[in-house]
Design a protein that fits this description.
This protein is an alpha/beta fold and 363 residues long. It folds into two domains: 189 residues, 3-Layer(aba) Sandwich (D-Maltodextrin-Binding Protein, domain 2), CATH 3.40.190.170; 123 residues, D-Maltodextrin-Binding Protein, domain 2. It is 50% helix and 16% strand. The strands form two sheets. Strands 1, 2, 3, 4, 5 and 11 form a six-stranded mixed beta sheet that branches. Strands 8-7-9-6-10-12 form a six-stranded mixed beta sheet, covered by helices on one side. The longest helix has 37 residues. The radius of gyration is 20 Å and the shape is globular.
Length: 363
């Protein structure tokens, strides 16, 4: 999708949604909830996933719980989505937990951790190894409930105007990247900022950013980063399995009948897997378009950068492990304990199979 077509569609969707602003409606036992998102309307993978999740909940409930989606900026600014749920402006938000590190550093572990869990490992921790319970404890402080709602898989490393030959090329680099990964890049010498996806292209175009990472080819093609930077680095070592979240007002959620609670929870889980399949199917197609039609060069980070990034990640995680905030320390400890176990399966089984397939099996 060309950037101008995508943005035109987003603008039209924004006008349509804005015209429907209304307080939550309850009529004949039916409820309408507002979902604010950090994504542009019709945004591949993430924005589409948010809308599909809303539609799933509405359909599965037979309209008893109808979810109305407001994309980035339509009701609140994108990076105020969580606050909108906390203050009652909306009943739901769809975004990424590591956008809210000002609330708790522990939230980083429910999105993506440098050199941390892949998306399948993360789901194992959250669903079966105590992660959800810790997440609940963090969000209880703010009166909200979080659910995994989408999965991009391992992301791309980012767009750079010039080739990176080593650490010296990072010094002073103005780079958009969020979360703990941003702290890693700061330790490597970059000047890091975070901004919503729709704000990145203008910043690159204006020269206020030298480089940026967002998700991967499927999203990045739509946002047009290839028009500014041609060096596309893989893979991301700071976002090995990024998850999005659905956040709901906990009191209102608990007031729902048990079947509607289950629908919200189970539709979120289904959408986590659906978004992953969407990215797996469309990232390779988008990358082929970027390379073949737009002259993008695929590159891989030099070992010097990868090793320095790993060392920086260890320092940051150790700081969180010893945090004075008990919940952050507990989250870090639980995450690391789970990672030590689940990585054995990934590395002994999945990684060796992938290496063997790459080496021996071609058609």
């Amino acid at each position: 999708m060309e950037r101008r077509q995508f943005l035109k569609g987003a603008a039209v969707g924004g006008v349509a949604a804005a015209s429907g602003l209304a307080a939550p409606a309850i009529a004949q036992g039916n409820i309408t909830w507002r979902m604010v998102t950090t994504w542009p309307r019709n945004f591949p993978g993430l924005g589409v996933g948010a809308q599909r999740l809303a539609d799933r909940i509405t359909a599965a409930s037979g309209g008893r719980l109808t979810v109305q989606v407001f994309s980035a900026g339509e009701l609140v600014p994108p990076l105020q989505s969580l606050d909108a749920v906390i203050d009652g402006t909306a009943e739901m938000s769809h975004g990424a937990a590591y956008y809210w590190l000002n609330k708790s550093q522990g939230l980083a572990f429910f999105t993506g951790v440098p050199y941390g869990m892949t998306s399948r490992e993360l789901a194992a921790w959250v669903r079966f190894m105590g992660g959800q319970e810790i997440w609940d404890d963090i969000y209880d402080q703010f009166g909200v409930q979080g659910f995994l709602s989408g999965d991009t898989g391992t992301q791309a490393g980012g767009w750079f105007r010039t080739e990176l030959t080593g650490l010296s090329d990072i010094q002073g680099l103005r780079f958009r990247t969020p979360g703990l990964g941003g702290r890693v890049w700061e330790k490597l010498g970059a000047s890091v900022t975070n901004m919503a996806g729709g704000e990145i292209f203008p910043a690159l175009q204006a020269g206020t950013l030298d480089a940026a990472e967002f998700v991967g080819p499927y999203n990045d093609l739509a946002l047009g980063f290839h028009q500014i930077a041609k060096n596309y680095y893989f893979p991301s070592f700071i976002e090995p399995g990024l998850a999005t979240e659905l956040v709901v007002d906990k009191a209102k959620y608990q007031e729902l009948p048990s079947d509607l609670q289950a629908i919200v929870r189970d539709c979120s889980q289904a959408e986590y897997d659906q978004v992953a399949s969407d990215f797996y199917a469309n990232d390779p197609r988008a990358l082929a378009t970027l390379v073949n039609d737009h002259g993008v060069t695929v590159r891989y980070f030099p070992d010097e950068i990868l090793e320095a990034g790993a060392n920086a990640a260890k320092e940051i995680i150790e700081e969180l492990r010893n945090s004075s905030d008990a919940l952050t320390a507990r989250t870090t400890e639980s995450y690391l304990e789970a990672l030590a176990l689940v990585r054995t399966r990934t590395e002994q089984n999945d990684a060796r199979f992938i290496a063997a397939r790459e080496r021996f099996f071609t058609l």
